[in-house]
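Before the break, one more example. Copy the sequence into your notebook; we will annotate it together after we see the structure.
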Amino acid sequence: MLDRRKRSKRITCKKLRRVRDDDNNPCILETDASRKCMDDNSYNKDMCTIHFLRYKNCRKFWNGIMMQRRKDGIQPNMPTAEEREKILESIGGMPY
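Here is what the structure looks like once it is written out:
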């Protein structure tokens, strides 16, 4: 039983590191803004709609990029943080 808990905790920590890794998650800023808004507004979702939309649009945009790269055979599917900066510069900033 104890071994199972340790393994579960390791998996959870590993997932958390991956979610917070800038190379794996292109929408960290939007995620943080949404969470901060929820904290600041006592979890009133109506007050944070704009942040939720930005997060949703961010995920949609980068998912499209990821799907295109997969289709074109480019690895890794998700561009690194450095590559994402160049992509955003080439299109004139964040489209979301």
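The mean pLDDT is 89. Residues 34 and 51 are 5 Å apart (CA to CA). Try to locate both features in your own notes.
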